[in-house]
Amino acid sequence: MVDQVRSHRLSVADSYNRYYGSGLYDARYPRPNPSTYRAALHLAGPATRILDFGAGTGRYTLPLLHATDAFVCAYDISADACQALEARAARAGVGGERLLVTADFEEARAAGPYGLVTLLFGVLSHIQGTGSRVRILESLRSLLTSDGVLLLTVPHALRRFPLHRSPGGGRGDGPSGPTPAAPLGRYFPAARPVIYRHLVGGQERPFPYYLFSRGTLTAELAAAGFTVESLGPDSILPERNLVRRPALAPADDLLCRLLPGWAGYGLRAVCRVSQAGSWLAA
After folding, report:
1. What pLDDT does 2 receive?
2. Three-state secondary structure along the chain?
3. Radius of gyration in angstroms for the set of CA atoms belonging to the chain, rounded to a whole number
4. Could you give the CA distance from residue 77 to residue 63 in angstroms, rounded to a whole number?
5. Burial of 13 (0-12, 13-18, 19+ CB in 10 A)
6. Dmax of the chain from CA atoms?
7. Which residues pair with 269 in a beta bridge?
8. What separation in angstroms does the CA of 236 have from each of 160, 168, 182, 240, 243?
9. Cβ pair 102, 40 in contact under 8 A
10. What mean pLDDT is reported for the chain?
11. Are strands 226-235 and 114-119 parallel, antiparallel or unpaired?
């Protein structure tokens, strides 16, 4: 079982190395989600140490370094993403002693505890299995200060690929996204695991992806010892469109105020360690 977990981790890391190395990720997502970045800045106010878990090439890390005086640890499973982030930070003249970029979780742990941990744009959804996700959340809980906060965003099953599934409750995928599964047109809003595929360098690369409902997200957070302080939409418009066309941000902000939280393209949660979680960690 341990060998299977290690093999899966290496496979996922290889997919992300190729994804980041191709430049496709940066082209698709060149900047932070505006409202989520504002939320991160607000929560980072009193924090002196921030962990950006699943930092990628730094689309949240670098703006946070620019806008705060905090120390930021950027952790990512992809060594290629870490190298790209270090190069970008050097070119931007930010970081220095205030930035640690690492693919070693124990090194990230040693740099804590943190007043703010960010787990953004579905990083949690790329971890397969409820148990594995809860263990990651428990690990992150252990890295927070007593008054620290976790900010996370996940894809919403109600809005993401709702017409597609694969046998057994998942979904069938093609080279650049989902392909229809019979019966075509049936709606699948429930939380479910899927395998998303990107065409990278002429080769299909698989990426595990879990689509959350509000209920499954709060349940996994509670199981890991977190209390959800707020839960709402990450955006109403698709993230890729929003971050590539900044002029859409005011319209999206208005839609987030007018529409209910369940209409979100993604879900955003602000969480703190529950009293039970504090007792378990003691």
Report:
1. 37
2. CHHHHHHHHHHHHHHHHHHHHCCHHHHHCCCCCHHHHHHHHHHHCCCCEEEEECCCCCCCHHHHHHHCCCEEEEECCCHHHHHHHHHHHHHHCCCHHHEEEECCHHHHHHCCCEEEEEECCCCHHHCCCHHHHHHHHHHHHHCEEEEEEEEEEEEECCCCCCCCCECCCECCEECCEECCCCCCCCCCCCCEEEEEEEEECCEEEEEEEEEECHHHHHHHHHHCCEEEEEEEEEECCCHHHHHHCHHHHHHHHHHHHHCCHHHCCEEEEEEEECHHHHHHHC
3. 18
4. 21
5. middle
6. 55
7. 152, 231
8. 11, 29, 28, 12, 12
9. no
10. 82
11. unpaired
Q: Name the one residue in this structure whose structure tokens are 């003691």.
A: 282
**pLDDT tens by residue, 226-271:** 999 999 999 999 998 999 898 999 999 999 999 988 899 999 999 9
What backbone phi and psi angles, to 5 degrees, belong to 31?
-150, 170
**CB count in 10 Å sphere of residue 211:** 26
pLDDT in tens, 170-223: 433 333 344 333 344 455 677 888 877 766 666 777 777 889 999 999 999 999
- Both tokens of 84, joined, read 């790209």
